[in-house]
Amino acid sequence: MPKEAKPLILICEDEKEIAEMVADHLETEDMLPQMFHRGENAIRFLKSNHANLMLLDVNLPDTTGFQLIEELRQHNIQVPIIFVTAHNSEVSKVKGLDLGADDYLTKPFSLPELTARIKAVLRRTETAKDQHITNNVEITEKPFDFCGASVNPTRMEIEFPDGASEKIGRKELGIISYLVSYPNTVLTRRSLIHAVWGVHADVRSRSLDQYVVKIRNLLSAHECNTDIFRTVHGVGYIYDPQ
Known about the structure:
The chain is of the alpha/beta class and 242 residues long. Helices cover 40% and strands 21% of the residues. It has helices spanning 16-28, 39-46, 65-74, 90-98, 111-129, 170-181, 189-197, 205-221; strands spanning 8-12, 32-36, 53-56, 81-85, 103-106, 132-134, 137-138, 144-146, 149-152, 157-159, 165-167, 187-188, 229-232, 236-239. Helix 2 packs parallel to helix 3 (65-74) and helix 6 (170-181) packs across helix 7.
């Protein structure tokens, strides 16, 4: 059987000795560490690469860990984060967790405890993904309306006004859900791809357009109003239910 891929752990830490010590330990724990000493370099890497988790210091030469996590979220980069820092005040911990960090570990720390926390966050991340049909849709979501039809994520079905119902694919469901989340708004093809497939997915606009054609054909076959789901040429799409 093929070996399971080692999780890639980014270490964003300005103290090089600590970063190297952590990296050496993670290698012994069958993880793949990658070190960054500046926040801008970590962000540049994550804009085009996937990582399983980031260990993030609060104090960095060019930014703070708090500012970096906000910038990551602005770019829709959802990497799990554990703050590893000498800041041990309650205010600092609460701020880090409120910004979306998954855990907060203060220096000095033991390497076995760090390993245990990393593994716990990785387990929670994988469990959370189990509920997702696509990057932006969970299987537990309630039915919603689209072009006069009722979309049921739990059953992965569309029920039409004529009484018929049909199964729908994962990506079609993700596209519809994203359109419904932003009504009366022009959505670029890139934003749709990032929302449904993920920010690091290698998906071309032509592939997205083919899924959109399938959705339109399905709606038209059951006489739904597709006029409110329009193409904005050269840009993307708009769902305009008024």
